[in-house]
Amino acid sequence: MNIHTYEKLWLAAAMVLIVGFIATITYGAVGPGVSMIDDDGGSIDPDAISDHERFGDTGVTHVGGNEYEVDVVAQAWSYSPGEIEVPANSEVTFYVTSRDVTHSFSVVGTNINTMVIPGEVSQMTVEFDEPGEYGILCNEYCGQGHHNMEGKLNVVPEDEFNMTELDVEAPSEVEAGNETTINATVSDGMQTDLETTATLEIGDQRYEEDVTISGDGSETVEFAVDTDELGAGDHDWTVTAAGYEERGTLTVADGNGGSDGGDSDA
Ligand code: CUA
């Protein structure tokens, strides 16, 4: 059988194309490390999200080294948390689920783009090398507020990233002569020990205590305040620890009869 030269050329060209197509698809599937969302993340009862150990408290968790986990709940029409902050040079695993209908979790300008289905947990790991700001969008139609469903992801320079938190619990009013305490809770979250000094300044009193907060934990410092020494009136206080500061005011009321009528002992 005689095949025309041009026919042979076209046959060869078609073969090259077919092999080329198969090669690009194979490369796309395994080469750049792209993997499909599967059921690795597990399933969840969408009606009991608030009690779930992962999604009851959403946000960023440091899991060691440069690895972080971010737990996100999508709902009509917002994300919780609405703003996420992670450090640069980190490896971040997102766990996302939905409280109501199908949404998506798409970080604009990255290859993070997953459907979020009630009852399912979408899990994906991404490396962030450079600081940057990214928008998070829902691109799965989910109702009339769909176009407003957005969030924010900030990748901040490593030295600006900090998970330390200071919480102060203080009464606003106390009767003179009664002992009162102001509690300062410092939490670390970075899985390395944090040493700091917690201080309370109130009136001209100053209290100080060194604390070491271990790993993922938190420590509460109780400052017992001498109200007799403070005397009646409003006293501003300042609590500082680990570079953070909280302020408030403590009112010391006259021993008998509350804060009004304070001049009656004249
Ligand atoms: Cu959520 Cu569209």
Automatic annotation (TrEMBL):
InterPro entries reported in the protein's UniProt record: Ba3_CcO_II_C (IPR034214), CcO_II-like_C (IPR002429), Copper_CuA (IPR001505), Cupredoxin (IPR008972), NosZ/Cyto_c_oxidase_sub2 (IPR051403)
GO molecular function, one term: copper ion binding
Stored CDD domains: ba3_CcO_II_C (cd13913)
Entry GO CC: membrane
Compartments reported by the entry: Cell envelope
PROSITE patterns: COX2, COX2_CUA
Gene3D superfamilies: Cupredoxins - blue copper proteins
Chain ranges passing through the membrane: 9-30
Domain Cytochrome oxidase subunit II copper A binding as annotated: residue spans: 65-167
Keyword vocabulary terms for this entry: Copper, Membrane, Metal-binding, Transmembrane, Transmembrane helix
Major subcellular site: other
Metal-binding keyword on record: yes
Protein name per the record: Cytochrome c oxidase subunit II
Organism: Haloterrigena salifodinae
